[in-house]
Design a protein that fits this description.
Elements: E1 11-14, H1 19-30, E2 35-39, E3 47-50, E4 53-58, H2 61-68, E5 72-75, H3 79-92, E6 96-99, H4 106-118, E7 124-126, E8 132-135, E9 139-142, E10 151-158, H5 161-170, E11 176-181, H6 192-201, E12 207-213, H7 218-229, E13 234-239, H8 263-272, E14 276-278, H9 281-293
Parallel strand pairs: 1-2, 1-5, 2-4, 5-6, 6-7, 10-11, 10-12, 12-13, 13-14
Antiparallel strand pairs: 3-4, 8-9, 8-11
Helix pairs in contact: 3-4, 6-7, 7-8
Length: 294
């Protein structure tokens, strides 16, 4: 069992013929992902050979979906084209759009997220500026390494790509149902709360790891959701305990002012909601081990 991405997911890659799209399509195929097509305007009818696996190229997402039955799109599209590409995926009615691209203007992301909502919420957007989503042993959509963990009964949601990988490796012997990198931009399509709700509803996820970072109030809002709606144990980690005030740290959304958005404030909110919070990723992994041991 997994959330949003399963062994049955049929994946197309927007931008598959570009350097990054091609490289990561090869990785996804090697991980067992069912990549059924690529989408590049002007290149319809071509095929790309990935180590003997020939993948057809379509000119539009709708055509790819009609021919292949695709229900997931992974986007490796330059920032200036990303708004149009995500909008096209939404208009085609794709179920999941995983936007890997970094550097998309916030205005463009806001417009695409609003467009998806206006279209009735048929399309879940993950990202942008994210590593994607992986259900170990089943499917991998994005740039998450496929060989650092196994399948298991822990759900992971994280703002940070590298911390996603570290936590997956730290808990590789326990394994994960699904790992979701939601991205750290100020506006994102899928939030901590979305993932927490999905993991709560997943009968094969027993515990949840939530990784946040300084800036904004997403983690505080997630803490309130945990208090009200989540019955499964949650452990957390907040990146940025040593960050200087008033500095943007890494992600565009990771900026604090005054006491708002600090790691300490987020830790306090989460702990008040019953979430055990580690001061380091390794300590957080240890807390999860204690939870799983009962």
């Amino acid at each position: 069992m997994a959330i949003w991405l399963t062994k049955d997911s049929r994946v197309v890659v927007q931008g598959m013929t570009g350097a990054e799209g091609s490289r990561h399509t090869r990785r996804m195929l090697a991980a067992g992902t069912n990549v059924v097509g690529g989408v590049t305007p002007g290149k319809a009818g071509q095929q790309v050979d990935f180590d003997g696996h020939r993948v057809p190229v379509f000119g539009e997402v709708a055509a790819a979906m009609a021919t292949t039955g695709a229900d997931v799109s992974v986007l490796f599209v330059p920032p200036r084209f990303a708004r149009a590409a995500v909008t096209e995926a939404v208009d085609a009615g794709i179920g999941l759009a995983v936007v890997i691209t970094e550097g998309i203007p916030v205005h463009d992301t806001t417009a695409t997220v609003a467009h998806a909502a206006a279209a009735g919420g048929r399309t879940r957007i993950i990202g942008p500026n994210c590593p994607g989503i992986a259900s170990p042993g089943a499917s991998n959509a994005g740039i998450i390494p496929a060989d650092i963990t196994g399948s298991g009964r822990v759900g992971l949601v994280s703002k940070s790509g590298t911390l996603t990988y570290q936590m997956m490796y730290e808990l590789r012997d326990i394994g994960f149902s699904t790992c979701v990198g939601i991205g750290g931009d100020p506006v994102i399509g899928t939030t901590h709360i979305d993932a927490l709700a999905a993991f709560e509803a997943d009968p094969e996820t027993d515990a949840i790891v939530m990784i946040g970072e300084i800036g904004g109030d997403a983690e505080e809002r997630a803490a309130e959701f945990v208090r009200a709606r989540v019955s499964k144990p949650v452990v957390g980690y907040i990146a940025g305990f040593t960050a200087p005030r008033g500095k943007t740290m890494g992600h565009a959304g990771a900026i604090i002012s005054g006491s708002s958005g600090t790691a300490q404030a987020k830790q306090a909110a989460l702990e008040d909601a019953g979430v055990r919070v580690g001061r380091t990723p390794t300590e957080t992994a240890g807390l999860l081990r204690q939870v799983m041991a009962g």
